Records
---
Amino acid sequence: MVESRIALVRAPNPSPMTLTGTNSYIIDCGNGEAICIDPGPPIEPHVDALIAQCERVNCKLSWIALTHGHPDHAPAAALLSKRTNARVAAYETSEIARDRSLRDGDAIVAGDITLQTTTAPGHSADHVVFYEPREAALFTGDTVLGEGYVLITPPDGDMRAYMQTLARLSREFANARTIFGGHGEPVSDPAAKLQEYLEHRRIRERQILDALQNGDKTVSELVESIYAQTNRALWAAAAQQVLAYLDALEREGHVRSQQMKNSEPLFTLSSNSG
């Protein structure tokens, strides 16, 4: 079995949305080089911990690779780059300052390690995932987590793009051995996790359509119905999820929004909703 060169260094930013904190990864690439994936929020002690991990494996940081530009994943790149002279790589549409703009299929090479880039829109428009063939490791950022499900917040988040990304990852990385997500613990059965994620999204979408069969509803009313057993503290996030589904369904002609009710649009099924 290949000895792992991947070290998880978790940022000290726990919250209901970040779980136990943002996962940063240091990969010992051999030949005295290392790559950091998602250095996290700009917390100096966390940057210290990332540098300490590089020193622990006697490596100089060559690259900082970002899955996406959200505040809990990317801002420490500037601090880490300044202290190590590592170059920053991010997707070509990212608003994060970078030395290299990545496109689908691009590779980041350091030592004897190659990170393959795959575009993964959905959670955000600038999201990518990285695959490391030596360990068959898939670094998914906020596309797949070790616990729970991913928040899709329009307009930057796009539910249909997200479901297409999950389907693509399931097809193209069927042989992946581990998912290293942006939050939570590593996933040891990537194929099962990706199918679970897809099925969860299909079930939620069906629940929304079924609820609209019983009459027009606002997002708030759909949340109250579908997420009745969920902690109310999470209903605001659930509303973003429902809106993401409705945006996709409306673009496809399955639902339409109409007059306002209590300052919220009402959603109704279209005649071609099936």
Note: The mean pLDDT is 95.
---
Amino acid sequence: MKNLIAMKSFTATQRRQTWLHIVLFIIALFELKAFGFGNPANAKTTFGFTLAKEWVLIHTWIIGSATGSYLFSIIALIAAVVAITLIALKKRAGLATAVTGLALMMGFLCWAAAGKFIPLTGMLQGSLLLAVPLVFGSMSGLLSERSGVINIAIEGQLLAGAFASGVVASLTHKSALGLLVAPLAGALISLLLATFAIKFSVDQVILGFVLNVLVIGLTDFLYKKLLIPYQTTWNSGPSFSRIEIPLIGKLPIIGPIFFNQTLIVYLMYLIVVIITYSLFKTKWGLRTRAVGEHPTAADSVGIDVNKLRFRNVLIAGLVSGLGGAYFTIGSTGSFSKEMTSGAGFIALAALIFGKWTPMGAVSAALLFGFADNLQGTLSIIGVSIPSEFMLMVPYIATIIAVSGLVGRVRAPKADGIHYSRGGSH
């Protein structure tokens, strides 16, 4: 009876989180039955923890596939119960939730890679690399939408940055010049977005899609007319090589993942820190949040709402354009048709999943990068799971977030609402 009364006193978010962990508990039970007891008795799974010349803490870990699935399923069950208990006590359950998810994933890997080798550190490094453009894109969306402007044009900004950086690096044979041009290309698309959305009050969602189509069409045309027939001149640029940070780059596991990367990845770290600090610790951040939530109140204290929005949308374009450079000079050096492959839309999904917060968006981008890399790794080692199922994971996660199972997801109140003195419209 007391438990029923306690459940009634829960907030909507607590009830959703409780149901989410009940679902995770059921999944763990299924994993215990299907993976733990269903694995071949003699099969073993090998996890690799070294990549190159980093210090070795553990080289490989060999565990019985059935034993691993059984063990991690039990851990997931216990962690889910702990999380439900903490929620009932109205305490934070983030760590227990993370343990539940990690245990479920490790149990799945023990089953899926039975008798095979999983390069765990390499897989995590690859996940970070796949998440790089998503992080840049989500930070761009964050800057725009926290200011009250919906940025559907992230895809176009990324693609413009990729095209401009690849072409300039090819013509000059200098990747640094390509890196300088990429943000300008993204800002150019943002200039169009800001001009039509803020000055002329065009519907921001439709405008974003139009800009994406414009960039896709323009880059496809130039790709066919210039980059293919004159590939050696226009589309064979250099790319950045990895830079290992002394000492910390040698740390086991985390060293090769985070501190043996290209310049663009290190710039990503810096931009995330700057945006996180600036948004919550500076006058600019306070004003940005104000115009995104209550533009009328911001206007009443002397803040030029549309001017700040215009400026922030341009900054957002700089960020996403820089992220686009990762596709070319950050990896292959050359541009290919529509090479962003929907990364801008997945970045928007990461922003929603992260509840319009910097670290939430980064965490979601890393999750999506991991899901993308996981399906590739499992395909390479020959696991008989259709890759299409793994590709669905980011979108399923987004649906879960939007449905509210992980808590209330609310965009800034004035997001997408045009503002003019005398009232919004």
Note: The chain has two domains: 2-115, 121-417.
---
Amino acid sequence: MNAVKEIGCLKLKNNGSCITKLVCTNCKKEFIANEKHNLCDFCGKVLYPRYDLEKAKETLSKELIQMRKVHNIWRLNEIMPVNDSKYRITLGEGWTPIITLKNIGHDFGLKDLYIKDEGLNPTGTFKSRGLCAAVSKGLELGLADFVMPSAGNAGAALSAYTAHAGVKAHIFVPQDTPEFIQKEIKYMGGELTLVDGLINVAGQKAKEAEIKNGWFSVSTLKEPYRVEGKKTMGFELAEQFDWTLPDVIIYPTGGGTGIVGMWKAFKELEILGLIGNKRPKMVTVQPTGCQPIVRAFKNDDKFAKPWENAHSFAGGIRVPSAIGDYLILNSLRESKGTAIAVDDSEIKKAMYKLAKVEGIMICPEAAATVAATEKLVEDGFLAPSEKIVLFGTGSGFTTPDNW
């Protein structure tokens, strides 16, 4: 393996990235930032980009950030992984609104309840963020073929960004992936393969294709860059709340890139001096038919055992095992958060309720956070005065059959 090379903060137009290296989140081995990597070569765990945050402070003050006209995931480009601005593609992802849920908050007895509506991203889900970052970095690394397994929405996002960039996407999805999402993938140029099984089986097929064809895998947390796109949800949350953080974040969790990405973002923002050391309680929500993280959290396990016979109509959180399980569990425990399961009937009821009382149609995965909130109030985990943010990770229009 090549020795680690510190590249520092490159003096490029639009304040180039201050990326310095990749670091394994488990064994702490370091890798060169601007070379193709997936998982750690030593232990097989997740790699994170690291940045020269002291250098980034020079251009990332609150005053200078407010002067920026860019309102997408590249707003704080110094702490994003793409060096050269010509590779930072965009379809307008990010900077989604935070909406007060006054009516449903009243029903739940909560004074300060909000939703960050990720359904307003270009492909209708938060997946736009991560795949924008991954494809952008792939372009900078000279890559032209990207492969991934998906429950559907991530595949649609990959197809959108590869189409925009003029490169290729190869996507493996379960056969029960909603027909509309299958069409999204196909019509945006993705090569779609249907798999007999859940996303773990799709992952096996995608891995075989990756090895056979030399394609670059952008499977959840099996490369270092999707998490960087997802962490921008944390950047935005802080800035939209005037550089403070809410008391609680409730997040639907499958592979977990979003929740661990935000946890990474908060640490970076603190080092930059943009926020203090107060953190929200992080809450993972999973369906009762597939709750490996919930079980591991309750059992105080470091890793989550795969969930057998996984089932739920919320395909995006029907993930039997996640390579970033230890990162998710760390964020829950460090934040004094929790993990909770809700069943499909509760999810569907929450979908309809939010649409009826707030005028917001969200996908099943996002609706799981609404169902969880009601249960967490009943359990006494949530206090009436706390500022609580739900993540509406996708639009209800991505799953029309559910309506």
Note: Residues 30 and 90 are 29 Å apart (CA to CA).
